[in-house]
Specification:
Among the domains are: 95 residues, no CATH class; 56 residues, no CATH class. It has 14 helices and 22 strands. It is α+β, with helices and mostly antiparallel strands. Strands 1, 9, 11, 14, 15, 21 and 22 form a seven-stranded mixed beta sheet that branches. A five-stranded antiparallel beta sheet has the order 4-5-8-7-6.
Length: 536
């Protein structure tokens, strides 16, 4: 039997571009007393001295076991010696953080980073290698004292999704004029012609390029994290899963500080949106197109890809002008809050613990003493229960899930605060979770995204495509005699076409194939036998 499915395939325009990315903002909760943490939570992990084998030399300086440093880089950062996809970049320093990117020889890269990992006796700091959002290795200064510094974090998971918008003609790149009957070769060199230009002009909006992620990571970190906050977060950033971090923030646990948390969230959203726009503008500015003719093209680099075309002006009387224009593409970029998670660290290696909102109850039982457990739970729920969307409207983020029938079925309800603005702490067989799917986005909205839509921008970027228009010159390039000769030649061809048409029409009126063949032989004078064989 054949396929009886009569449904037709349609093009779904709501699918995001390849440049769809996820990043996280880590907010440290202040005002949590040290007594609120359990002894087991404070003892989690290992001291950085043990991880790197730090010891004091006979001269009083600190010495590291480089074999342990190398093992940490390979195992903890999951760097493979066979990996050869990352490229070396210029070392940069900011706020005490040094960034290194791997290059083709990974063994040499690891050795290079191992040599940079050191400990300072005077500053009492250890340079710990970590991965940033782009995949580059950063050396973060961390105090290496053994005293634990426990901290609870709220992790806001954001997405940047890009969708195709309108497209249109950009600026004119070059114009060419061909004289009547002239032919020339043109060469089109786009921003994707060389490896270096591709790297500089790549963008997270329309690609997953490592170079684009690295440039965007630096920009969003600088825009969304103030230097004072960044310097205090070094202690936990080495132990955190900070490879997907877009910045750090602080929030007070006091009941009156909810507005401060929401304000910080809004400031981050604004800075993140501006970072996306600036990143796109910088990448678009590097997307240069070049159009040259054969006479202007002298040498070509071996790593360049150039498109060559031949154009001819078939006109004998007028000049033909070609206009080469860029094609610009509009992208709709959306920043949306996709999820919220809770984490804990005491600043030591391997002490990072991270859970979803649904696991909040068990998480607090593991790291917070019973005396403070309910208070901290209520404060966390109050902070994360709502978010403000792009229309400045509050959106509820949580829903309550009841496990029924011995866990074989569930019932979902809205989460509402009490008269004091507090949220009930979940109990046995009940848990909170972040709502699924698009939240508070119109059903007919274009390009819905998961979670809460925080901001939406339109970005126009140059593409590597060229649109060509041709314009025929208005004035004749021939004198009267030449024009008469050309008209006579045109008239001669027209008469020949009319003669052929008349002959063919006459032949079509003859019904007998043999007689039609004989007449054709007389009219066109081909070999008679070939025509008879063909018709018979």
């Amino acid at each position: 039997m054949g396929n009886t499915n009569n449904s037709t395939e349609v093009i779904n325009k709501n699918i995001p571009m390849p440049g769809s990315h996820t990043g996280r903002r880590l907010i440290a909760l202040e005002d949590v007393p040290s007594a609120a943490f359990t002894a087991n939570a404070k003892d989690l992990g290992r001291s950085w001295k043990d991880v790197f084998g730090i010891r004091e030399s006979s001269k009083g300086s600190l010495v590291l076991d480089k074999s342990l440093v190398q093992r940490y880089i390979i195992d903890r950062l999951q760097v493979k010696v066979s990996d050869s996809t990352l490229q070396k970049t210029t070392d940069t320093s900011s706020s005490g953080i040094t960034t290194y990117s791997f290059y083709s020889d990974i063994q040499a890269a690891i050795a290079d980073i191992v040599d940079k990992v050191d400990a300072s006796t005077e500053q009492k700091q250890l340079m710990v290698p970590t991965l940033d959002w782009s995949g580059s290795v950063k050396l973060v200064p961390v105090p290496f004292e053994d005293d634990p510094q426990p901290k609870i974090f709220i992790i806001e998971v954001y997405g940047i999704s890009s969708f195709l918008g309108d497209y249109g003609i950009g600026k004119t790149v070059r114009t060419f004029s061909l004289f009547p009957g002239e032919t020339t070769n043109i060469h089109i060199k786009t921003w994707q012609s060389t490896t270096e230009s591709i790297k500089e002009s790549s963008s997270i909006i329309d690609s997953h390029s490592e170079s684009a992620k690295e440039r965007f990571s630096d920009k969003i970190q600088n825009e969304t994290t103030d230097k004072s906050t960044e310097s205090t977060m070094h202690t936990w950033s080495a132990s955190a899963s900070a490879s997907a971090s877009w910045g750090w923030g602080k929030a007070s646990m006091k009941a009156s500080a909810s507005g401060e948390y929401k304000s910080g969230q809004e400031s981050f959203a604004k800075a993140a949106s501006e970072s996306v726009s600036e990143h796109a503008k910088e990448a678009s500015g590097k997307r240069d197109l070049t159009v040259t003719s054969s006479s202007e093209k002298t040498t070509t680099s071996t790593d360049e890809t150039i498109i060559e075309r031949q154009i001819t002006n078939l006109n004998k009387r007028r000049t033909l002008n070609f206009l080469f224009k860029e094609l610009n593409q509009e992208y709709i970029t959306k920043l949306h809050l996709k999820d919220i998670r809770i984490a804990y660290s005491n600043g030591r290696s391997d002490s990072w613990r991270e859970v979803s909102v649904a696991q909040l109850q068990q998480f607090l039982e593991d790291v917070v003493t019973e005396k403070y457990r309910e208070t901290i739970a209520r404060q966390i729920l109050r902070l994360i229960a709502t978010a403000v969307d792009k229309n400045d409207l509050p959106v509820d983020l949580l829903e309550k899930v009841y496990l029924e029938n011995h866990g074989r079925s569930v019932r979902v309800e809205e989460v509402l605060p009490d008269s004091q603005g507090e949220y009930a702490v979940p109990f046995s067989n009940v848990f909170y979770r972040f709502k699924r799917g698009p939240l508070a986005q119109e059903a007919v909205a274009d390009h819905p995204v998961d979670g809460v839509l925080i901001s939406e921008n339109k970005v126009v970027m140059r593409t590597d495509s060229v649109l060509v228009e041709s314009l025929l010159g208005e004035n004749d390039a021939l004198d009267e005699f030449a024009m008469e000769v050309q008209n006579a030649a045109a008239r001669e061809k027209s008469l020949a076409n009319e003669r052929e048409t008349l002959l063919l029409t006459t032949l079509q009126e003859i019904a007998d194939p043999l007689k039609r063949a004989e007449m054709a032989a007389q009219l066109f004078n081909p070999p008679l036998t070939r025509i008879i064989e063909k018709d018979v």
